[in-house]
Design brief:
By secondary structure, the protein is mostly beta strands. A hairpin with a 2-residue loop joins β7 and β8. The chain is built from three helices and 24 strands.
Length: 397
């Protein structure tokens, strides 16, 4: 038993003794998931989350990397938990609940997490990922239940581990969970759905004492495994590993061409008039900000009238940007750098843009402004996912 598991198991045993006379309803989780941020300062000795080497008076397996990292997750893009191991190492971060929670309560609530496994050159391990673990008491005996990505299917229907992309895993009625120890009628290292443990682990004081994200020792002592974990959802709480700050954006535009000043009601353009604008879209990640991969930009353009993609020509880095109709009389364009670009802490991602706005015959209404909203895109569950980091600019004409 490693130090982290021993520490959490001690919390399970201590809490179990005091819960023996409580009804399960008194120990239940919140009905609605609440988001709880886990910052770098929350990980370490005596903190809400402890690492493999943090519990005292134990001889640990050599610890790997266990840190809250800037590597952006696929939901809030504000960081993640980094777990990586080399030969003979193990990496964990665990959180003890205030009191033991019956497995029936755990199973009735959402139980999920996000994982990312970096592809590596040999001797990197393949086909395995970070586990979601529940340290439990079952008939008074301690064991750890492990949800293993390699034995499950993600929310997009992909079996096992897909490297270099975020995957979302949810425990279902048929998901196998592996027990580390022999408990009840279950042999050590056997796999069973959570419902089987719920039915068997029902003695007074039985239940889960916490949650652990774990990368275990690899069979090949020369192998490595580099992973990220986030949004552990257990017992009504989403644990959001975050580094604190987010990126910011700025859109800077200037007029570069004349307008036709056709602002009067009933004024109709002859079709040759146009306005032009040029400038930059810049996103900056602060020194304590996230690390975004495969970034891009989503542009939303409006002029207060019924704008069509045929009215605009947009270029980024000198190349035409494909445009489509958006909601509320807007036009949307996606800028996808090629080759791929990453935005690191204390870095910037800048794109020069030009916009040519042509009036169509018969368009009626004021033409006194052009509004551009830019949103940072980044690798999430898929490429060029919206991050929520936005910037706006309005150009008077």
């Amino acid at each position: 038993m490693n130090r982290l598991t021993a520490s959490v198991s001690a919390a399970v045993v201590a809490a179990g003794a005091s819960l023996a006379l409580l009804a399960p309803a008194a120990v239940g989780a919140a009905a609605v998931n609440t988001v709880q941020k886990v910052l770098p300062t929350d990980l370490g000795p005596g903190k809400p989350w402890i690492r493999l080497q943090d519990p005292p008076n134990n001889v640990p397996t050599p610890p790997g990397v266990q840190e809250v990292s800037p590597f952006a997750d696929p939901v809030r893009f504000n960081g993640s938990l980094h777990l990586a191991v080399g030969g003979g190492q193990q990496a964990q971060a665990g959180h003890a609940f205030p009191q033991v929670v019956p497995l029936s309560t755990i199973a009735a609530a959402r139980l999920s997490y996000d994982t990312y496994v970096k592809s590596t050159v040999p001797p990197g391990a393949t086909g395995v990922g970070p586990n979601l673990q529940l340290p439990i008491l079952c008939q008074g005996v301690f064991t750890t239940l492990s949800f293993r990505p390699e034995n499950n299917t993600d929310s997009q229907g992909r079996p096992g581990v897909v490297p270099d992309t975020w995957q979302h895993f949810t425990s279902t009625a048929s998901s196998p969970w592996r027990t580390s120890q022999a408990v009840a009628a279950f042999p050590a290292q056997s796999d069973h759905p959570l419902s089987d443990y719920v039915a068997a682990c029902n003695a007074p004081g039985d239940g889960a004492g916490g949650v652990i994200a774990n990368v275990g020792r690899l069979g090949d002592m020369s192998a490595t495994l580099d992973t990220y974990v986030d949004n552990l959802t257990v017992n009504g709480t989403v644990y959001d590993f975050a580094i604190g700050a987010l990126a910011t954006g700025r859109v800077a535009l200037r007029n570069t061409g004349p307008g036709d000043n056709c602002n009067r009601p009933g004024c109709r353009s002859a079709g040759g008039d146009h306005d032009s604008a040029a400038g930059t879209v810049t996103f900056t990640s602060p020194s304590d900000g996230p690390e975004y991969h495969g970034v891009g930009t989503r542009l939303v353009i409006a002029d207060g009238r019924s704008l069509s993609h045929r009215d605009l020509t947009v270029k980024a880095n000198g190349r035409n940007v494909p445009l489509v109709a958006g909601p509320n009389r807007t036009v949307i364009g996606i800028i996808a750098p090629n080759p791929s670009v990453n935005l690191f802490p204390n870095g910037t991602y800048t794109t020069p843009i030009t916009i040519t706005h042509r009036d169509r015959p018969g368009r009626v209404g004021p033409k006194d402004s052009l509004t551009v909203t830019a949103e940072l895109l980044a690798q999430g569950y898929g490429p060029l996912q919206r991050t929520g980091v936005k910037a706006h600019a309005t150009l008077r004409r």
